What does this fold into?
Amino acid sequence: NDRFYRIPFELDIEPRDSNYNILDVRAAFYPRGEKITADIKVDRPQSRATVNINSADVNLGRFADLFSRAADLMLSGEMALHGKAQVLWQPLRIASVNASLTLEHAKIRVGEIQFQNAMAAGGKEVPFRIDLTGKSDGEWQFTGSRISMTAPMPVNLAGIDGTIKRNAAALESSGNFSVV
It folds into this structure.
């Protein structure tokens, strides 16, 4: 759409040598008041950067209007994000990625399909976690923990895993899930 969104941020850059070849960068972004931090080590002679991203529990309800614009998607709960990436810029590409996303008190609806956090034997909610690893250019491995599907029929998924591949202009995905 034609709307603009402003995201407040802070940025600190500290050179580690007199030639500014190695830089330590600390960035904090505040989308809708939620804090996401990035610690970046820039190595200019090697044309690479190591990026570490972290967030505390981000309230997804603050982004409900954005989620609703994407193919009948509703998402609420708290999300924590942790990730590390190696970025090269000659040519620009992501050399490696390891990331994890954890959802608590989650309610997810895509069309008529609904999910929520699974429950443990004592009635305590189990956080849902997704891990993503960049295996090579254009190929990603993902795993996910237990989650409950509540509609169109109730079923517990013990876990998911799979691969996402980028081929030309399309994405291809395959994987497995276990029902308990």
Observations:
- The chain has a mean pLDDT of 91.
- The longest strand covers residues 92-110.
- The helical segments are 64-67.
- The radius of gyration is 19 Å.
